[in-house]
Amino acid sequence: MRIIGVTGGIGSGKTVVCKVFESLGIPVYDADNRAKALYVESEQLKKKVIEHFGQKVYSGGEFQPQELSKVVFDDEEKLKLLNSLVHPAVADDFKKWIAKQEAPFVIREAAILIESGSYKDCNKIITVEAPEKVRIERVVKRNGVTEDDVKKRIAQQMTDNERREYSDFVVDNSGERMLIPQVLEIYKKLKQPPVKHAPH
Fold first, then answer.
1. Which has the closest alpha carbon to 34: 120, 106, 94?
2. Domain 1-27+104-192: assigned CATH number
3. Helices marked H in the chain — which ranges?
4. Which of 65, 83, 131, 199 is paired with 34 by a 20 to 30 Å CA distance?
5. For 64-114, what is each residue's pLDDT tens digit?
6. In the chain, where are the structural domains located?
């Protein structure tokens, strides 16, 4: 099964692009949402998170994402540690998910696809881009956070130029170009079976 990675900075519009693929019958695995679910579903992950970050992250037996964010938000080492616990859990979950899919290819959507090393398992990478100003406006509106919060998040992520070096396709989601025709163009290319080169 071919895996196509979809990535992009916060507010770039990865999810919108993935929804277009879903409407074309392509299964999408949203790594960020599944990670949130695994904090609750995976006993093993839960145990490790409590061990490293304290019981308050699960106060009253419920997962408290705000508490966890507070702990890791300004501490790069703690964020790295958290990612090192979450990524293996997501990787296992993805393996189970992909085994059930039947499609010409599947999409793996993740904000830190490249930073986490997950891009190595992908056959092709699509990066979704939008100007920083547009992204900040989108996230402030969507999440009800401050502009400074979004800028902090952007600063923690790779830049578009860095992502581009890993990408096979770039989708311009600035609002200047129509999105659906761009995605359809990529879909057509991906649907074609990979060319097998005859051995010399």
1. 94
2. 3.40.50.300
3. 14-23, 31-41, 43-53, 65-72, 76-98, 132-143, 147-156, 160-164, 179-191
4. 131
5. 988 898 888 778 889 889 989 999 999 999 999 999 999 999 999 998 899
6. 1-27+104-192, 32-100
